[in-house]
Amino acid sequence: MSSRIYMLIKVFDKEEYVDAFIQKGEMFCRTLGDFKKIIDDYVRGDAYEAVTDWHQPDQITLTFSYKDNDGVEHSFPAEGLGGPVVMQNNGYDFLNLYCMYAVKVPEFEESYETEDERVSVVEKKCHAQRKEHLK
Fold first, then answer.
1. Per-residue pLDDT, 42
2. How confident is the model at residue 135 (pLDDT cuts 50, 70, 90)?
3. pLDDT, tens digit, 9 for 90 and up, residues 83-133
4. pLDDT tens per residue across span 58-71
5. What would you report as the CA-atom Rg of the chain, rounded to the nearest whole angstrom?
6. Which residues is 7 bridged to in the sheet?
7. Which of 10, 24, 29, 121 has the fewest other C-beta atoms within 10 Å?
8. Is 42 exposed, middle or buried (0-12, 13-18, 19+ CB in 10 A)?
9. What is the 3-state secondary structure (H, E, C) of 109-132?
10. Which distant-in-sequence residues (6+ apart) come within 8 Å of 102 by Cβ?
11. Facing residues of 51 across strands?
12. Are 83 and 57 in contact (CB under 8 A)?
């Protein structure tokens, strides 16, 4: 189902940032590293921001190797991983990000004759979108 952007929302942490944006066109932007450190149930922060690779445990072999104090090399496999191996390039953590939210509404192709039919169609479409989003 297609959708269109109804509005864009920019969230500011402080009123002084809002004033600087409106009066001077200045914008405060956090770095990628800052967003990765925010702990707020994934509302704004995301520890998995800018992931470069996801490796599923059943599709990867991971071996740890090291040399001890005597220069002898040791290695052992990592087995029984409980989830994917996530790789990120921390070199991007210093980059500033511009973030905003988009409120999207579904495009409706259905026709209806009464307000009750229209409400029913909208509710069904929204329910289907929510179910699809939660997968």
1. 60
2. low
3. 898 999 999 999 998 888 899 887 767 777 888 888 888 888 788 777 776
4. 888 889 999 999 99
5. 24
6. 103
7. 24
8. exposed
9. CCCCCCHHHHHHHHHHHHHHHHHH
10. 5, 7, 8, 9
11. 88
12. yes
Neighbours of 32 (CB within 10 A): 19
Cite the DSSP H helix spans in 1-135.
15-24, 32-37, 115-134
Secondary structure (3-state) at 36: helix
pLDDT, tens only, 24-66: 999 888 899 988 888 776 666 778 888 999 999 888 888 999 9
Cα angle, residue 95 at apex, residues 90 and 101 outer, rounded to 5°: 110
Which pLDDT score, from 0 to 100, does residue 78 have? 84
Instruction: Please name the residues in contact with 42: beta carbons below 8 A apart, sequence gap of 6 or more.
Output: none
Do 49 and 36 contact (CB within 8 A), yes or no? Answer: yes
Query: Residue with structure tokens 């445990």?
Result: 57
